[in-house]
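Design request, tokens follow.
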């Protein structure tokens, strides 16, 4: 991040604001008088968490996490306290779980599942079929349809069986469509045709009939060509009794591109198909440096997307794509952007955190 005088001053202000917010949280006064009445004095009872507040609406509030961060005890404390749903950010992906063909390694995912269980948290498992983060053995050669079908089925069923009974849901297929609503030309699509999606859902269902099965993607928060493609596919899959339970809207938002104002309508149309929806990878990035104005706008967006989920009965919960700017994927992928999460790099809650609490209250 470029360190300009303005950037440094803004960061100092933000750090002070964050420190004050932390003190308020520690003192149990974070949520204002209404919250205090419920939460009591700090020494008597821990304050309510995002998970507690979400549960009052029959929803969950989750965070992604990743294995390297788990040695940071200040980080894992809030991860364990504040959320009731956890998504492994990388540990259950194909490159991690089947690094050599037919040789499975569930170490990374197991570590996160173990930690989550110790904190009575559920798992949104992520992800079985994705064009990205595939192992070299799979991408380095061509496959016949029969070969790839067998590889895919074995991967899905071995992994889903391993986690059977331990996960709430699976992102079975991730990011299957292009922005214009055409199928993404992945190795799976090109080799197997669009039927790979229904097959993947059926194989996953066979391996764990109780896990909720999702299709998951980004830029499908608003009504538009890409979410229309999901709507059409979901309708068709439901008509054919393919085991699909929900659509995951990743919700990687950016202040400079505008809020998806049709989010609620979009969630509602999937509900009407008899599907759950979830906001699965929420972050709201901004051009750095973060200013008070941008953080206030970001807070409004977090409030609005939380409201949208609460207003649609089958929107089952919200997951942030990690909870602190310290471990956000954004700065590495979008240079010059960041500050996307509800907690800052010092693990202090930001205005967005308080806005989520307001919406959940
Ligand atoms: O494992 C290597 C490590 O050995 C190496 O030293 C290090 C050096 O760069 O890289 C490590 O791999 C990184 C990997 O995360 C694990 O930390 C990759 O470089 C990095 O590109 C990868 O990024 C992940 C990204 O998916 C890949 O597309 C992010 O952490 C992860 O948060 C992100 O998650 C995705 C969701 O799965 C799907 N939706 C979009 C979302 C954000 O991109």
């Amino acid at each position: 991040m470029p360190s300009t005088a303005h950037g440094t001053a803004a960061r100092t202000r933000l750090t002070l604001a964050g420190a004050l917010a932390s003190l308020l949280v520690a003192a149990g006064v974070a949520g204002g008088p209404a919250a205090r009445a419920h939460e009591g004095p700090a020494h008597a009872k821990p304050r309510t968490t995002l998970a507690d507040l979400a549960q009052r609406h029959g929803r969950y509030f989750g965070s992604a996490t990743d294995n390297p961060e788990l040695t940071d005890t200040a980080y894992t404390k809030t991860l364990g306290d504040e959320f009731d749903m956890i998504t492994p950010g990388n540990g259950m992906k194909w490159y991690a779980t089947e690094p050599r063909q037919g040789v499975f390694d569930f170490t990374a995912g197991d570590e996160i599942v173990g930690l989550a269980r110790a904190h009575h948290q559920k798992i949104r498992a992520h992800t079985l079929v994705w064009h990205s983060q595939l192992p070299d053995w799979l991408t380095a050669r061509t496959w016949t349809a029969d070969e790839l079908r067998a590889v895919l089925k074995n991967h899905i069923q071995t992994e889903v069986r391993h986690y059977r009974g331990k996960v709430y849901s699976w992102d079975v297929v991730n990011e299957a469509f292009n922005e214009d609503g055409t199928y993404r030309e992945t190795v799976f699509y090109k080799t197997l045709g669009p039927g790979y999606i229904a097959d993947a859902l059926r194989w996953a269902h066979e391996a764990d009939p109780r896990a909720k099965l999702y299709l998951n993607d980004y830029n499908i928060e608003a009504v538009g060509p890409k979410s229309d493609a999901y709507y059409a596919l979901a309708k068709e899959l439901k008509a054919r009794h393919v085991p699909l339970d929900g659509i995951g809207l990743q919700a990687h938002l950016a202040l400079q591109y505008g809020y998806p104002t049709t989010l609620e309508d979009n969630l509602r149309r999937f509900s009407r198909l008899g599907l759950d929806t979830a906001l699965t990878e929420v972050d709201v990035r901004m051009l750095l440096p973060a200013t008070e104005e941008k953080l206030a706008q970001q807070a409004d967006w977090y409030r609005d997307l939380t409201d949208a989920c609460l207003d649609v009965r089958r929107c089952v919960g919200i997951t942030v794509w990690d909870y602190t700017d310290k471990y956000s994927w954004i700065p590495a992928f979008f240079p010059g952007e960041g500050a996307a999460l509800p907690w800052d790099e010092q693990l202090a809650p930001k205005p967005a955190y308080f806005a989520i609490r307001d919406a959940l209250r």
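Comment from the thread starter after seeing the answer: thanks! The chain has one domain: 15-360.
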